[in-house]
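QUALITY CONTROL LOG
STEP: pairwise intake check
CHECKER ROLE: data steward
CRITERIA: each record must contain a sequence immediately followed by its structure tokens, with no blank fields

ENTRY 1 OF 2
RESULT FIELD BELOW
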Amino acid sequence: MARLLLTSEDNAKTVPLTGTLFWDVVGSARVDLFEVQAGTAASILGGAGKDLFRLLGNQTDYSVYQASSNVVFTHQSTGETVTIKSLSATGDEIAFVDTAPISLKITGGALMLGEQLLTPTPSPITTSTDTADSNFSLDGKGTAVVPVEIDASESAFVFTDLVSTSNNVSLLNFTADDEIIIFGATASDYDDGVIGTNEAGDIAITYNQAGILNQITLLGAVTDTSLVFDVTSFNALPIGNLVFG
């Protein structure tokens, strides 16, 4: 058995769990990213952040069941299991090779995988995978002076932004079911002159990482007189949150 304890220094790093060892993992207080090789056994306590677990097989390669507040994914051809422990109402996300991230959380006392109610009986994963475009990286999109326009109305998007790669994007129809995850910076980095609004209700998020410019504009996101100037005021709006991995 291999034990692994993550810290804040693992921020924005993908943690690979591979081989024939049984992995016993405790996540950090931030957003953790795990990749579990198909057929590798693991027990993962994700920690305080909204974590992303990638199981490196197709959705149909696994069955799933509830064990108390934990969820267990069984790899069908090997019988090895991946247990994700102590889920909450905030929840985490699970993804397979052939799917976008699917929410995994406790809702109204029920443990839910997307829209699928989990029970103590192992079952096939039936949650719809018709969201293949919902996990969208903003890295490298646009140029320093010409933004790329992206319409978020067709799905619940998880936009990711690694600040060591420049971008310039304009997001249309960014609503409560969407989210932006920033990797390589902290919320406090975004609290000093990075976020602002204009009279048209656009929100500009402009972060300079050692000369690498990250530009995200949410077009028409403010429909009232709300003043947006930091992460807290942004996340107080009735739209998706800005979170940090």
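ENTRY 2 OF 2
RESULT FIELD BELOW
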Amino acid sequence: MTTSAKSDRHRPGTLLRTTVISASTALLALLLTACNGDGTSKAASPDGTTPTATAAGGDPGTASPTGSAKPASKPADAGGGASPSTAPKPVASTPAPGKPLASATAADDGCDHKMPISPDEVAVYRYTPEGGFLSLIVKYGNWGCAPKDSDGAPFETVGKETYMPMDQAAYITVTNPIVAGSENQHIGVQEFLDWLEAHPNSGLVFKYHLGAHGAIDRLDEEFTP
């Protein structure tokens, strides 16, 4: 009877120790489950890196990154310059101010300032009998535009002096200043040559006609202001 009573007094302590050990085991299991929900260990590998979790039954190389991961920033330009997306855009240069347009003439005089060279008019300067035949020394030209308050347009010569053979029997008509008056009058070839010799380089304008042999056979003075 005495032995049985002692055994009953020790049973509650034994039960308490068993309960504490069971609770500690459950708490440790709970902590491990909270630290690693899938039951795998997160202990560091021998090289100091943490193993990457993989999806169940999936390829470790195809695991998707976590939602909190940020894409890596683009590397800076090797030359230290800004990336193309941030490079400043060139500023368009301001065009130089254009030159003002030339103003139109005050009044259109109706004159053609680009008249062609006259095919049958020359300014006569001198004559020469060299070579055994008579030649007039002349310049070709065209009629310019008449200035205001003038009697007519000037004959504007171009190029160099040239020689034109003239027939000794050519028909010649002249007016002022060779003869008095404003009407053309007929004179002889020698009278005309004498006047040219007395008034060299006058530049009087004549309309000419060439004969069959290529020499002047008619010469008519043109009025000039």
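INTAKE CHECK: passed for both entries
DESCRIPTIVE NOTE, ENTRY 2: Strands lie at 121-128, 135-143, 155-157, 162-174, 185-187, 204-210, 216-221.
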